[in-house]
User: Which sequence fits this backbone?
């Protein structure tokens, strides 16, 4: 068995983390085991399950500039004490430079960078991120991405492998009984439900989605907006909802473990993101057969099934509302088949990732053996 060290921020219930768990649950853990190097001092929502599946979780110092000397000191000691890791796979976009550079310094032979986005998240570390992004090819000797747009963003002029944001298709297929139960539970039985899943942050553009919903409810009776997620913009969302008097018409469902069932309650899925790679939730929503309207800032690779439409953000809330109402509520009866045909079934994709790890490990052993001769 080989152990692969997955470098993440933390294992919260969000897109790339959920993607990783999808793969982790479906690989043969007698052959490949995942362990997780996190960059937060607290446990994530998936940590308990990770430990149950045999994984280990380590907490590295946060990647603040003042922590960099401490970080590299920690990582040097870490790799000295954990010689079992020959593969590190980093998922923190531009900041992957730091764990991969630390791994290179310690002689870790297989260093994988994984791009999950098509732009950099804007915060106080943005200049450092631009610098680190340019350095990724110098420390990563294997490159992969969720799609072509994300890969071309992180590795311009370099080849990369596509590792799809695959899902357990059967968990997301439409089920009338689940729909009725969950709609009753949420008290939206007679409502037209507009749904969204995503971290509460500026990238996901939920503040604009509230404006869109306000336009919808003025044109259509009995409407409700479900915002499912968790994040730093929660207070901003709550303040806007209160200011617009929408407390009874908008629900924030925080850090839910039943997202697959919550898709069943929706009549349409809306994602007005400012940028994305290939969002996992877009795959999930389409698998459920939901009509989907997404921003044209998302990679066109998200257009997997026949039930999704892209819209320009510049058209404004009024036009978005009209398009959402116009698209209707009919679900795609062939969604499952279309998703599987496009290559998003986790059972098949997990075997591909597993075999890739094993081949990298086998090639390394072959090289080491021939070096000794």
Assistant:
């Amino acid at each position: 068995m080989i152990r692969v060290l997955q470098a993440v921020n933390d294992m919260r219930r969000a897109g790339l983390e959920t993607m990783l768990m999808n793969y982790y649950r479906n690989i043969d853990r007698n052959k490949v085991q995942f362990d997780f190097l996190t960059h937060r001092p607290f446990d994530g929502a998936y940590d308990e399950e990770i430990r149950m599946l045999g994984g280990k979780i380590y907490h590295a110092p946060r990647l603040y500039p003042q922590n960099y000397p401490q970080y590299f000191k920690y990582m040097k000691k870490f790799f000295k004490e954990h010689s079992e890791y020959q593969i590190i796979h980093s998922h923190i976009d531009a900041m992957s430079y730091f764990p991969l550079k630390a791994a290179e310094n310690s002689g870790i032979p297989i260093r994988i960078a994984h791009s999950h986005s098509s732009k950099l998240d804007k915060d106080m570390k943005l200049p450092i991120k631009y610098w680190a992004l340019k350095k990724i090819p110098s420390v990563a000797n294997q490159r992969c991405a969720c799609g072509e747009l994300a890969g071309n963003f992180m590795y311009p002029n370099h080849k990369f492998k596509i590792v799809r944001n695959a899902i357990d298709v059967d968990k997301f297929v439409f089920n009338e009984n689940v729909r009725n139960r969950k709609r009753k539970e949420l008290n939206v039985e007679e409502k037209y439900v507009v749904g969204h899943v995503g971290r509460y942050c500026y990238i996901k553009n939920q503040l604009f989605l509230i404006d869109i919903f306000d336009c919808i409810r003025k044109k259509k009776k009995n409407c409700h907006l479900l915002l499912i997620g968790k994040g730093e913009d929660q207070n901003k969302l709550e303040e806007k909802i209160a200011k617009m008097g929408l407390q009874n018409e908008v629900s924030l469902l925080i850090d839910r473990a039943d997202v697959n069932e919550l898709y069943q309650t929706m009549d349409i899925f809306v994602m007005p993101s400012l940028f994305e790679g290939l969002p996992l939730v877009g795959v999930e929503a389409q698998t459920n057969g939901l009509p989907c309207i997404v921003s044209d800032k998302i990679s066109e690779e998200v257009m997997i099934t026949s039930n999704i439409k892209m819209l320009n953000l510049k058209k404004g809330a009024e036009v978005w509302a009209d398009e959402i109402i116009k698209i209707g509520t009919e679900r795609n009866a062939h969604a499952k088949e279309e998703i599987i045909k496009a290559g998003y079934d986790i059972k098949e994709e997990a075997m591909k990732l597993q075999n890739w790890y094993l081949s990298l490990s086998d090639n390394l052993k072959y090289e080491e053996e021939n070096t000794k001769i």
The mean pLDDT is 94.
